[in-house]
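Review form for a predicted model. The reviewer records the input and the model, then writes brief findings.
Reviewer: anonymous (R2)
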Amino acid sequence: MGLQRPVEPFHRPYSGPEPPAPGRRPRRLIALLAAAVALAAAAVVVVLVMSGGSEQQAARRAPREGPSRTPPGSPSGTPGPPEKVINALPAPCGTVAAATAERAVPKATRRQSANSTLTTCTFSSTGSAFRWLRVEAHLYAPGDTASPVQDAEGYYDAQWAQAHDAPLVRTVTLERRDGIGDEAYRWFKTDEGQPTVVGQVTARIRNAVFTVSYSEQAPRGGRADARERACLETATAVAREVLAALNRS
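Model under review:
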């Protein structure tokens, strides 16, 4: 046998990986992502618009909050229509019917005084120094002030504050009362200097404030509250007549 030729090592030629052939999948994925983003943005816009409309509707349905003296239907900070004011006070004793005064104080003598902004009328019993009915009215005329209603409100507030710390009287009842003018309170008290009880109603109607006071002798035995209901009912009945007279002014 002859000599064999040595086997030469086999060198495998190397070639790098070929780049993948371009396909449509990446472009399609990008298009789908862009469409999804556009739909999401559109959905956000719709939600914002709907929520904004819902908030506006809720705001229209929600009751307006504010002071009780704010005219209803007037937005905050927006002046409403001019409020009707009282231009002149009626005659001092013309606010109470003769029959009403006779029931409250039979066979009474009558005293009155008046000017353009203050009137008083007092019915006093001839048989008792303790039984009397007094009506006092204050007017803040539009010709005297640029804010007649606000001035009347301030005077009413001052009267309410003073009633809480009045000297020489003992307060039995002091409470706000609805249904008499724009605002009112009722006060039942005893006079520490005389044996009398007093039922009082103070009320405001627009730019006028009036007070009705009815007094009678305190019951024996120190039971002042025994006459509370009767005295306050008398003063309230007269106050409603005064209110009607002012509304006609």
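Findings: The helical segments are 25-61, 98-104, 148-163, 228-247.
Further findings: Residues 25-61 form the longest helix (37 residues).
Recommendation: see findings above.
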